[in-house]
Amino acid sequence: MKFVIEDDDHETAAALRAAPLRPFCEIIVAPPGEPRTKPRALNIALPFLRGSLVAVFDAEDAPEPDQLRKAAALFAAGDEKLACLQASLCIHNGAQNWMTALFAIDYALLFLVFDKGASAAGLPFFLGGTSNHFRVAALRALGGWDAYNVTEDADLGLRLARCGYVARTMSSRTYEEAPIAFGKLVAQRSRWMKGWMQTALVHCRAPSRLVADLGALRALAVVALLVGGVLAPLHGPLLALALGLDAAFGRLLRPETAFEHVHCCLWCYVAVMAFYAELGARLIAMRRGGLLHLWPALLLRPLWALMLMLAAWRALRDLWIRPYHWDKTEHGAAAAPETLRHAPPTTPYAARQRRTA
């Protein structure tokens, strides 16, 4: 087990050295240097790995106890092209306020709907920043993580696919804490969107090579998810506002010419279909994640969209003035429930171990 810390993080270093670490634990101190990002720290630790498999966890994570065994079993059953397994990330403090509720729903949408669907269809998908399990040989073949990308997980997921490796989702969950303050939430989402912008610029700068590496269908799916995921929050609320103003004060609902009738029908069709598609996807995610009790938060979805727009424009600004700056997210305001930290393993192997113990 490797604990990777920055050289000036004296508080964490002192806490680790005071803890009764097991013999297999090792503290790796990242030497001074830029950029001060998580992927740089991971690259520093990569040469110290001795096993054939490695998992990445954030310090505040609460993974299900049998997650490592599940991943090892899946790798053993797969071939060498299976390079990554991604566990589902779930929010344990979704009921804390309306922002954490919508954050939890978005996480469920990404990991329990989009990623699982893409994995089942054989399409590339964006990895989570944690709870991903890798073959070390594949990581080294790719040169590790991009130290200058602030969403190294999104970039690595695409690089794995472009190099012929396979990533799959796995049926295991890791519980995380959502930011509870508006400013922290905007900062975190801004970093994510800045990283997606970086990833889009890197992977879409040579479209013909992207198509050659992935095939036309898979490349189109990547562009739709990656570029669409950035453009939607940048202009979506503004587009909705323009539609509302046109309906209230313009001629959207009072067409006179044939062209205006067609224009009205198309606008209304797109608006209604987009609304029901988004609502339906979120309800599916909430059902899969056991989050249906958070449905009242959906009434505040317009405010969430405005927050995402603010984060997206902040990300665009940061991409220009400080592209490699990493907004760190504070954790610890809501401790993980005891049931998450001490739940017994659920695999058949673990059940047999408990019976024979």
TrEMBL record:
This is Glycosyltransferase 2-like domain-containing protein. The chain crosses the membrane at residues 215-238, 258-277, 298-316. It holds the Pfam family Glyco_trans_2_3. Its main location: membrane. GO terms for cellular component: membrane. The lineage of its organism: Bacteria, Pseudomonadati, Pseudomonadota, Alphaproteobacteria, Hyphomicrobiales. Residues 336-357 are annotated as: Disordered. Residues 54-267 form the Glycosyltransferase 2-like domain. One of its GO terms (molecular function) is glycosyltransferase activity. It comes from the Bacteria. The keyword Transmembrane applies. InterPro entries: Glyco_trans_2-like (IPR001173), Glycosyltr_2/OpgH_subfam (IPR050321), Nucleotide-diphossugar_trans (IPR029044). It is found in: Membrane. Coiled coil: none annotated. It is a multi-pass membrane protein. Gene3D superfamilies: Spore Coat Polysaccharide Biosynthesis Protein SpsA, Chain A. Keywords: Glycosyltransferase, Membrane, Transferase, Transmembrane, Transmembrane helix.
